[in-house]
Every structure is written in structure tokens, then in C-alpha cells.
Design goal:
Layout (H helix, E strand, L loop, with lengths): L2 E5 L3 H13 L3 E6 L2 H7 L8 E5 L7 H11 L4 E6 L4 H10 L3 E4 L4 H13 L10 H8 L16 H10 L5 H8 L3 H15 L4 H10 L6
Helix pairs in contact: 3-4, 4-10, 6-10, 7-10, 8-9, 9-10
């Protein structure tokens, strides 16, 4: 059984999520409307295993709240909740310390899988990234999982990877690199193939794991 806190400003959705979490056999410590409400209610003596964290909230959003947890209670795992499969938001939440990401309209079975994965593996990102990359990202000290030693990444591809971890669009990345958008697309597609990932998130996680960027 996991101890869980729910932080979301949509009361009906949050209440439904609380009922689902309880039906899966887990305990809900409390619910919060936003980051400020979360910090006010948070008891350092009873830290949760997991916080299900909405990204877009008034007063103090999921990014700020996740970063606060990373700085003050790093053992608590955050799973980001969003209505949209937004790669930039996922990458930013990763930088803030989130260990998982799930869409609000996901099937209850996926929430169950996400909670179990967080408890056993320490992360959950569903099919957003290749499982091998996820394992490597989660094991910074495991030399055998250093995928960078298994592939050849060019200097330009490395520069591209650094920019992938920002909120720049692909067009803005092309402008920064002084290349055409098609060239940037080629860098992206080449890295997708080399690293066996399908999304920008997968590229960002590779970059973080291998010290190309610091999250």
C-alpha cells in the first residue's frame, strides 16, 4: 500500500481520483487545491510515497511545487497529471524532479500500473519513452547502462540534444543552430533511430542520463 497526496484544483476530478486511488488499496493522506495549499497541509513527519501533481494550478503550479519537493523532500516521488500529452511540459516537470507522467483521461489500469512502477522502480513514463532508456535514466551510477557508449552521437547531435531539453520549438532550435528546419528534423529522426526512442521526452532523458544536460 502506498501513501498518496492529490494536488489538483479541479475538485470533481480530484475527488474521483481519490476514490480510484482508495479502490486500488492505497491511502490518501490529504487533497490540495494548489501548491500553496499543498505546502500548508504538508506534514514533514508523515511524508507520502507519491504525490499525484496537476501541472496547471492557480497561485502555485505543479512545476514550482514539484521543485519545492525535490529541494525539501527528495524521497517523495511526484507523478505529474495533465490533460495533454505535452512534451515540453513533461521535460520541464522532469527538470523539476517528477518521476512519472500520466494523462488525466488514462484508464484506471494505467494509474494502477503507474503507482506500482513508482513503488518498485522509482519511475513511470508509460510508452512515452523506451524502457531501456528509462532504466538507464533511473540508474545514474550503473556503468553498464551507459547507453552513450553504445551509440555514436555527433557534435551537432549533442548540441541539438542540449536544446531539446529547453522549451524551444524545433523551428527556434533550427534558428539557434543556424541550420534549416529540415536539418533539425534529420538530427531528431537520426537520434530516434539510434536511441530507440519515439519522442522528444526520450531524447531529453538520454541527455540527462549521460550528463549532456543537468536536470
Amino acid at each position: 500500500m502506498a501513501t498518496i497526496i492529490l494536488t489538483d484544483d479541479h475538485i470533481l476530478l480530484r475527488n474521483g481520483l481519490a476514490s480510484l486511488v482508495k479502490s486500488l488499496g492505497h491511502a490518501v493522506l490529504f487533497e490540495a487545491d494548489n501548491g500553496k495549499d499543498f505546502i500548508k497541509k504538508f506534514n514533514p513527519a508523515i511524508t507520502p510515497d507519491i504525490v499525484l501533481m496537476d501541472i496547471n494550478m492557480p497561485e502555485m503550479d505543479g512545476f514550482e511545487t514539484t521543485l519545492w519537493l525535490k529541494q525539501n523532500h527528495p524521497k517523495t516521488k511526484v507523478v505529474a497529471l495533465s490533460m495533454y500529452d505535452n512534451e515540453s511540459a513533461i521535460i520541464r516537470m522532469m527538470k523539476c524532479g517528477a518521476k512519472g507522467y500520466i494523462l488525466k483521461d488514462s484508464d484506471p489500469a494505467e494509474l494502477k500500473e503507474a503507482i506500482e512502477s513508482i513503488l518498485t522502480k522509482g519511475y513511470y513514463y508509460s510508452e512515452l519513452v523506451n524502457s531501456k532508456i528509462m532504466q538507464a535514466f533511473n540508474n545514474f551510477d550503473d556503468a553498464d547502462s551507459d547507453i552513450k557508449n553504445l551509440v555514436q552521437i555527433s557534435e551537432k547531435e549533442t548540441e541539438f540534444l542540449k536544446m531539446i531539453c529547453t522549451e524551444l520549438t524545433y523551428k527556434e532550435i533550427a534558428d539557434k543552430m543556424k541550420v534549416s528546419p529540415r536539418t533539425v528534423d534529420n538530427y531528431r529522426d537520426s537520434l530516434f533511430e539510434k536511441l530507440h526512442v519515439k519522442t522528444r521526452v526520450g531524447l531529453a532523458m538520454f541527455a540527462a542520463k549521460n550528463g549532456i544536460v543537468q536536470f
